[in-house]
Amino acid sequence: MTVLAVSGLSVEFTTEGGTLQALRDVSFEVPERKIVGVVGESGCGKSTLINAILGLLADNGHVSAGEILFEGAQELTTLDPTSMRALRGERISTVFQDPMGALNPVLSVGRQMVNVQYRSGRSKAEKTARAVEMLQKVRIPDAEKAVNRYPHEFSGGMKQRIAIAMALMMEPALLIADEPTTALDATLEVATIELLKELQEEIGCSVLFISHHLGVIAELCDEVIVMYAGEVVERGDVRDIFNDPRHPYAHRLLDCDPARQKGLVRHLPTIPGEIPDLRARPEGCIFRPRCHRAEARCTETPPEIVVSPGHMARCWVAEVPERAEAAR
Fold first, then answer.
1. Do 270 and 192 share a structural domain?
2. Which residues of the chain have pLDDT under 70?
3. What residues pair up with 249 in beta bridges, in sequence order?
């Protein structure tokens, strides 16, 4: 079963400088009990994608084309606000990147976790017991007393674990994790990733994991979507993408990972150029102005090339691996 199916999604924002096309023809699926990662540099459209799925686009933004199908039945782009609110928190939950801002500072953690369960039909005592149980699952020490403490009494790592516990309280079908490890140090990041994977397997939910950290994506995800300037340029199994990237942007993005450097270097690799102005998108391939493999035909919109089953790249030269071209 496919929990989330995004097809041909385009999102536009009305600005003083003209119409900005933040997403264009985005398509992907999140299968049941799988973790799908979305990766790309800042400005690639990751946050816009999340807000479109959750129905939380700004007033000047709207879905101009495409559909978002949830659990095979509900079309989220046309869902009325009341129905959308009923889904959020119960069937679709979110963990945001800032644990400091995810919790209300004037309410105890237990009070907030009880409030999350307002549609559950449980008694207050049962809701409190469930809160304690979830705090134990995310390894908060002395959970029975922790429910009475306030957010400022916890460390940043604990706050993020509490946010994860709150998001999974109602055992949602889909968890959207928006860079949940960005504000954590390396040790806490590893622990949080292991915890999230463990809870995902226990609850059986699907996860859409947004990150710019390639190492985290490689460690956690089953499949990965590479986005650039509001478009999906490559998608497939995480091993296929990391071991054999076919879109030049995906290849260069992986080359920029500091973990891939074999020795000490004075300057880290970068991708030359800048993301194009989305109010005046270039013709043809969106990556063409920065691409080292650009050809004359790249002035035309590239097709989706199926590299192998489940592995797609939107590029004219996707059929030829870069290492093979370099060897010529």
1. yes
2. 183, 323-328
3. none
Are 81 and 214 found together in one domain?
Answer: yes
Predicted pLDDT at 100: 75
Q: Residue 324: what pLDDT? A: 52
In this predicted structure, what is the pLDDT of residue 328?
45
Backbone torsions φ then ψ of 65, nearest 5 degrees? -165, 160
Asked if 129 and 243 sit in the same domain, the reply is no
- CATH of residue 237: 3.40.50.300
Dihedral over alpha carbons 259, 199, 53, 104 (to 10 degrees) = -100
Q: Measuring CA to CA, which residue among 182, 222, 2, 34 is closest to residue 97?
A: 182
Handedness of CA 316, 321, 324, 325 (dihedral sign): positive
Q: Is residue 61 part of a domain?
A: yes
CB within 8 Å of 226: residues ≥ 6 apart: 39, 40, 232, 233, 234, 235, 241, 245, 247, 249, 250, 253
What is residue 45's predicted lDDT score, i.e. its pLDDT? 92
Q: Is residue 239 part of a domain?
A: yes
Q: Assess contact for 137 and 172: CB atoms under 8 A.
A: no
- Same-domain status, 179 and 256: yes
What is the span of the domain harbouring residue 110?
104-171
